[in-house]
Amino acid sequence: MKGIGVSAGMAYAKAYLVENDVKIEKYEIKDIAKELQKFSDAVEKAKKQIEGVKKEAAEDCGEENAEIFEFQILMLENEDFVKEIKNYVEGFKVNSEYALDQITDTWIKQFSQLDNVYLKERTIDVIDVSKRLKSILQGRAPKSIDEMTEESIIVADDLTPSQTIGLNRKKTKGLAIAHGGSTSHTAIIARALGIPCVVGIPDLLEQVRDGEPILIDGEKGEIFLSPTLHKIEEMKKYENKTRAEMEALMEFVKSASVTEDGFQVRLFANISSKIDADAMLECNGDGVGLFRTEFLYMEANEPPTEEKQLAVYEEVAKSMGDKPLIIRTMDVGGDKKIPYLNIGEEENPFLGFRAIRYCLENKELFKTQLAAILRSGAAEKNVKLMFPMISTLEELRKAKAILQEVKEELEARQVPFNRDMEVGMMIETPAAAMMAEHFAMEADFLSIGTNDLVQYVFAADRMNARVSYLNSYFHPLLFRLVNHVRESAGKYGKTVEICGQAAEIPYLVPLWIAMGINTLSVSPSSILRLRRLICGSSRGELQEVLAKVLAFDHAFEVENYLKKVFRD
Ligand code: PEP
Ligand code: MG
Question: What is the C-alpha to C-alpha distance for residues 370 and 386, in angstroms, rounded to an integer?
Fold first, then answer.
């Protein structure tokens, strides 16, 4: 099967099927008594399963931690809950999975809006119980990633943000995902963890059987079901080659990223946790160009408090010494859905209530984060702040005005913070790119997010594999826009970094160097490879290549040309 390779590497293991996206059909029921009995049996079965999971959890991680399953058991024992569903089946003469879906949807909404923190946190349990019951009613085996006992390749429609974050690195050999593109949250995390990943195969779950041996090639985007011995041999050779290459790359840990003619590039990392920051430090990266903080919001059932965020930011900042740490305020929405934020279903989430748009409307939540970031810079002067998804000057000004309010409040609270923290913004919309000069006057630095910029320029959803041919990083328009942003920023002496995926595509890096962009923020696992590339380049010689690329009209011309010039 052919999909999109989004995290390089090969893996061979048994498929572990995870079905998150269970479709619920509505149909009429004639024999109501039988349907009600079916539901009662499912409740009993679910209870037994959860008791089993609880027992195992108690053995593995202690009685106390196993208590988290108690709520789920109580929920299944709750007569009101069971009755409500049965009444729905009787009243509307519909199948019990449909009734369950309708009732739990209401419960989920009600729970997520509660003030009581404990109960609010139980939203996730309501979702879990509902999922388990639906699987039983539909006669499928319920599976969760936590129950994966052996090394496997996870096969799923997509992973929820919390599943992605909780991935077991040792057991997860690879990811095969039906939906999404190269910059979905799953792809971003897979790259950061160095787990091979292929996305964008719509009928994946119909093709792969649970437990079947599969081989995935995260570079070419290929999946082989029950692969031949020849293919497995090929993978072993690849593994040996990669190991040898990694050893060779270690030579570059101590070098600076400087071209042969003396142009110095700062190789920053994109991170979403302290673990990623450590990976950056291990290869002596120059800092963090993008801390995706929304993952902090995704791994919990409620927004992290100011103190919790402060602890995380401070810990990362401290570990980095003098190296810059650019913390981006939360970019929620789009494919990063967080149930408790109540963004709701949208027709076009990537064109909707996302990132700064959400933050400006949810001021208190935004202010909590801004306070934590400002405070994390009190002792660690390397911390900078960055706003995502700015499209108009008004948005930037509003965000800065709120930041000013937070500074005054911190002053009043008499807590230390960095009053002079640099404030940058991301250039991710065509509007921001075209108006870069105005933004360069008011922001301290600009960071080009090519993942979003490309999707908005070509109006092609970055999660939709069918339009991924439009999301090409080789289109000459991208280079013209980046060059325009760089020139605009240069007029006001502001730095420009590139932090989307295009920053780490080896064929494109020579172009960024030729343009004079000296800061690239990339997955930690790409740093050494890019450093080797930079050390072997000469900026002077690349000018001609850039001139030629800027004159092309089509993505395929650029791609063919760059591959011809730089093929190794
Ligand atoms: C981008 O859009 O290029 C970017 C770096 O941000 P994210 O991928 O988190 O949307
Ligand atoms: Mg973005």
Answer: 10
